[in-house]
Amino acid sequence: MIDEHLLKQLVTFADKHTLSATAEHLMLTQPTVTRGMQKLETDLGVKLFKRQSNQITLNQTGQFAVNEARKVLKQNETFMTRVKNYDRSHRIIEVGSNAPGPIIVLNRVAQHTPNIAVQSELIATADLKNKLEDNQYSFIISNQEIQTEQIESYYLNHEQLSVNLDQFMPQANQATIKFKALKGLSFVVFQDIGPWKQIIQDNIPDAKFLYQAQWEALTEITNYASFPYFNTNITAAKNHTGNQVQIPISDPIATMDFYINYLKTRKKLALSLVESIRNNWSSQWAK
């Protein structure tokens, strides 16, 4: 068995090109690195370096060994991460979403459910499957239904997008509104809104979006300025003020279905929380 520390030294030497720089990067002495490289050659039974006066470089076998060492180190890192994630997933119910609305719902559930840890940072849609398979999450709520050999999904509820308009705007006297009626307006929008971001950008003609990275900044603007802004049946109570009229958007794409996605081995746990999640999901415009 080759010592992993020796593989790290070899890879670092390939990146730093000198023994002194390798030693400095790894916070070792240069003689320690020298002995480590000699031991690695002995353990492998091959020569890895070309040694000249005042210079040492990798030979062809050494370059091959570096590539293989990178693979081994990556595999070891993956092994450790997956084992730790698996252990944590059986002690802590790690949950998340790719949209902000379900995060609010999950935080409500966590208030009366022990051992739930809600991750506030949204998960990239492209990463949903890997996050579950690596046991980083016990389950994930997303607008995508995932069905694989290891993962399955269960429908939860929908989220309905609405727009908040100044009460004196001509569009504000409607019971519902379509995206095209919002043409040319400027909106203040929270930066991280997951899949909703592409929907509003693609469906409102000639609109401008003033994205805010901080929720507090968005709240301040919507409280004291007349910019239109968006929320949903989940987020409505969080930032609605008395100066705007909240109008549901009636385009079909403004209604987004959400699913709980989980490993099939965690099905019993996931489904045991479905009723609680649904009960905490706003039904203001439930169909």
Automatic annotation (TrEMBL):
Coiled coil: none annotated. PANTHER family: HTH-TYPE TRANSCRIPTIONAL REGULATOR YBHD (PTHR30419), NITROGEN ASSIMILATION TRANSCRIPTIONAL ACTIVATOR-RELATED (PTHR30419:SF8). Residues 2-59 form the HTH lysR-type domain. It comes from the Bacteria. Gene3D superfamilies: 3.40.190.290, Winged helix-like DNA-binding domain superfamily/Winged helix DNA-binding domain. One of its GO terms (molecular function) is DNA-binding transcription factor activity. GO terms for cellular component: cytosol. This is Transcription regulator.
